[in-house]
């Protein structure tokens, strides 16, 4: 069952005989809603959230079908969608944005499914949308990275422990770095890697030659312990723990 079939199922279980009846009841554009139920058009996350709330199913079930039956779902709570995390901003190399667009989760416009994590509950997690191709070998443009604040992820032995945990799981250690200029910030995803001869580097992982060694961005920068502080010009703020890619 795909999303448009789940949408039909949820609408019928909610007591609406036709797509037109549901659209009329909730003030939706009937042409658009019919197209979503037929699968003629993709459903964006903010729209899926609106449908899920109105039809009283979980956003996770509507998007992924991971829960068993919409008839057994509890109602969604405004601003606290069970099983979801807010998209609070974007990461894009070379793009300067206002600080609030990266850190303000008070009224998020988008949510993504929050799949269970053994260490981090949904309430401490936030998603960032990836723009550009500076790390497309790990997170392509248009995908969302599930992140937690550095303080939550950093083990007792610091950066070495963080990197060792990733190595034990045979996966890259991806962090969010911020470079500030006045009231603006450039938020970028980088891979924390070991530097030959000792120490660490923050590197891109891109198919674009400009981000590779010798390219315009010189493939990242050397890590400095000051990057863990609040007042550093370039600092590490969050750690990636997962990724979500929409299929529609």
UniProtKB/TrEMBL annotation:
GO terms for MF: DNA binding
Domain (HTH cro/C1-type): residue spans on this chain: 7-62
InterPro entries linked to this entry: Cro/C1-type_HTH, Lambda_DNA-bd_dom_sf
Protein name: XRE family transcriptional regulator
């Amino acid at each position: 069952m795909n999303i448009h079939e789940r949408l039909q199922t949820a609408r019928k279980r909610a007591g609406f005989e036709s797509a037109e009846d549901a659209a009329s009841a909730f003030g939706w554009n009937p042409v658009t809603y019919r197209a979503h139920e037929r699968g003629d058009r993709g459903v964006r996350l903010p729209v899926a959230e609106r449908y899920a709330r109105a039809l009283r199913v979980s956003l996770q079930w509507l998007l992924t079908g991971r829960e068993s039956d919409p008839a057994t779902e509890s109602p969604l709570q405004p601003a606290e969608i069970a099983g979801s995390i807010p998209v609070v901003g974007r990461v894009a190399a070379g793009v300067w944005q206002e600080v609030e667009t990266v850190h303000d989760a008070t009224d998020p416009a988008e949510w993504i499914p929050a799949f269970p994590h053994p260490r981090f509950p949904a309430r401490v997690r936030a998603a960032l949308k990836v723009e550009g191709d500076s790390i497309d070998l790990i997170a392509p443009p248009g995908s969302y990275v599930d992140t937690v604040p550095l303080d939550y992820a950093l083990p007792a032995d610091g950066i070495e422990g963080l990197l060792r945990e990733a190595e034990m799981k045979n996966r890259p250690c991806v962090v969010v770095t911020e470079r500030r200029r006045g009231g603006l910030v450039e938020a970028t995803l980088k891979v924390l890697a070991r530097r030959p001869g000792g120490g660490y580097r923050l590197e891109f992982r891109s198919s674009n030659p400009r981000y590779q060694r010798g390219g315009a961005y010189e493939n990242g920068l050397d890590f400095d312990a000051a990057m863990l502080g609040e007042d550093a010009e370039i600092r590490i703020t969050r750690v990636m723990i997962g990724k979500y890619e929409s299929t529609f």
